Every structure is written in C-alpha cells, then in structure tokens.
C-alpha cells in the first residue's frame, strides 16, 4: 500500500471550507471525487488541518493510501487535469506508511492580507480585508509581540472549537507594510478554530485606537472573548505552508 502526500493550492471562495460536510461543496470533497475518478474507487484524504469557508491555501498538505502503481506525475499533472481551475496539486511525494499530515506536522504559517486603500478594490475583494480606517502599524507591531510564546489562547478561539487544549505556541507575528497593503504572517505549532482571524481582528482594533497594545496581554490574563475585537473575514486568510 502506497502513502501519497499532496501539496495543494486552492482559492477557497467557492467552497464551504476544506472538510467534507453535508451542506456545501468543499475542497476535500472535490479532490476526493477527482481521485476516485482517477483510481477507480473511493479515496479518503487525510489533511494537515481544516480551513473555514472562504479561506485560501498555497500549501495545504493531504495524504491518501492507494495500491495503484501509477507514477507520481499522475497525482500532480494527471490529477490537475481533472480538478476545477480553483484547485491544483503543486506536488506529490511517496511517504512512509506511518506518515500522517496532521499528527506529524510541527508548525504552520498563515498569512493575512489587509487592503488599506481609500476606495474598494474589485481585484482584491476576494483576497484581502478592506479596512478603510487609518491603521497605526507601529501600535499593531507592539501588540503583536504579546501573542508570541506558549500561551493559553482560550480567548482566541471560535465558537464550536473542539480542541482538547487551548494552549498553543506562536513563534512569530510579523507585520509588513507595502503601499496600500499590510501582510500579517503568523507562524506557530498549531492554531485553534478562527484563532488567526481573531488575532488579526484584535490587531486591527489596536491599529484603529479602539484597543491599546497592552490590552492584548490582559486578554491572556483574563480571557474574556467579548473583550476582543472583531473576527477578521475569512477571505483575507491563506495557509502558506505546513512544516514537518
């Protein structure tokens, strides 16, 4: 039995997230359907995690088992010929039988894009959050430092989060300004449901002056969800890479 690892890029706009669910078309479902067409039978993909509806990915990792003796190019070039244009396999690799995309992952890198232009941008509407108010980037960077380290992120998890523990380690939160864009790069050993989006929403509240940078530190001391800012919309978020 072969264990095939896929690196997957997708535009999440048209999908109800990664994971198969009864009330919407998902990325996992679409990939499994194309794999079943290629392999002549049902296939179950195991992924490095989930993404919410509207979230994008450059480097989602998933794996599946097969007895078919097809060349690896069949699982990249061949599979891409069956997939819709908003999903693509960027690489395929044969892994040891024990490899699991989720349990073997040691870290993830997410990027959130904010568009700060005065006028809305039709070209950016699916990939960046349009924040019309002026943002104090220096204050946001000071606040971002409070997220770094191993901490209890209970105040930064979305409703319905089923994680057994809310302790996570964030390695870095970097904010880069380029013209009318801010890119927030978040790296850590794992993330709770909507955690990155809630972190970004809080940093934007700091940037607008509604919160002070030190308020972020206090949220860890007294994790009251109602005290935080808004949850950033999903379409600005992209899973860049999973580390092993």
CATH topology name of the largest domain, in short, is Alpha-Beta Plaits
Please trace the helix and strand order, writing H or E for each element: EHEEHEEEHEEEHHE
CATH superfamily of the largest domain: Pseudouridine synthase I, catalytic domain, C-terminal subdomain
Percent of residues in helical segments?
Answer: 10-25%
The averaged pLDDT comes out at 94
Describe the global form. Answer: globular
CATH class of the largest domain: Alpha Beta
Radius of gyration, taken over Cα atoms and rounded to an integer in Å: 19 Å
Low-confidence parts: none
Distance between the termini: 22 Å
CATH architecture group name of the largest domain: 2-Layer Sandwich
Protein structure class: alpha+beta
Major sheet: 10 strands, mixed
Tally of contiguous helical segments: 5
- Total domains: 2
Q: Give the tally of β-strands.
A: 10
Percent of residues in beta strands:
25-35%
EC number: 5.4.99.12
InterPro entries: PsdUridine_synth_cat_dom_sf, PsdUridine_synth_TruA, PsdUridine_synth_TruA_a/b_dom, PsdUridine_synth_TruA_C, TruA/RsuA/RluB/E/F_N
Subunit structure: Homodimer.
Catalytic activity: uridine(38/39/40) in tRNA = pseudouridine(38/39/40) in tRNA
Write structural notes for this entry.
The chain folds into two domains: about 1-95, Alpha-Beta Plaits; about 105-244, Pseudouridine synthase I, catalytic domain, C-terminal subdomain (Alpha-Beta Plaits), CATH 3.30.70. Strands 1, 2, 3, 4, 5, 6, 7, 8, 9 and 10 form a ten-stranded mixed β-sheet that branches. The model has no long low-confidence stretch (mean pLDDT about 95). It has helices at about 25-40, 75-80, 135-145, 195-205, 215-220, and strands at about 1-10, 45, 55-65, 85-95, 105-115, 130, 150, 165-180, 180-190, 235-244. A hairpin with a 2-residue loop joins strand 8 and strand 9 (about 180-190). The two termini are about 20 Å apart. It is α+β, with helices and mostly antiparallel strands. The chain contains five helices and ten strands; from the N terminus they run βαββαβββαβββααβ.
């Amino acid at each position: 039995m072969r264990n095939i690892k896929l690196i997957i890029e997708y535009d999440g706009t048209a999908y109800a997230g990664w994971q198969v669910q009864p009330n919407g078309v998902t990325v996992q479902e679409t990939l499994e359907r194309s794999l079943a067409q290629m392999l002549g039978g049902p296939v179950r993909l195991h992924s490095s995690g989930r993404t919410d509806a509207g979230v994008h990915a450059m480097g989602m990792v998933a794996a599946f088992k097969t007895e078919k003796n097809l060349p690896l190019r069949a699982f990249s070039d061949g599979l891409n010929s069956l997939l819709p244009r908003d999903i693509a396999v960027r690489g395929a690799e044969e892994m040891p039988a024990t490899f699991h995309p989720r349990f073997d992952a040691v870290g993830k890198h997410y990027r959130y894009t904010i568009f700060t232009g005065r006028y809305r941008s039709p070209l950016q509407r699916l990939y960046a959050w349009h924040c019309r108010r002026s943002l104090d980037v220096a204050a946001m960077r000071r606040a971002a430092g409070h997220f770094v380290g191993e901490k209890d992120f209970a105040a930064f998890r979305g409703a319905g989060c089923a994680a057994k523990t809310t302790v996570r380690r964030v390695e870095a939160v970097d904010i880069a300004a380029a013209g009318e864009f801010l890119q927030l790069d978040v790296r850590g050993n794992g993330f709770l449901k909507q955690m990155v989006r809630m972190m970004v929403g809080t940093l934007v509240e700091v940037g607008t002056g509604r919160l002070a940078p030190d308020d972020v530190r206090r949220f860890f001391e007294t994790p009251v969800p109602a005290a935080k800012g808004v949850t950033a919309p999903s379409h600005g978020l992209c899973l860049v890479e999973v580390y092993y």
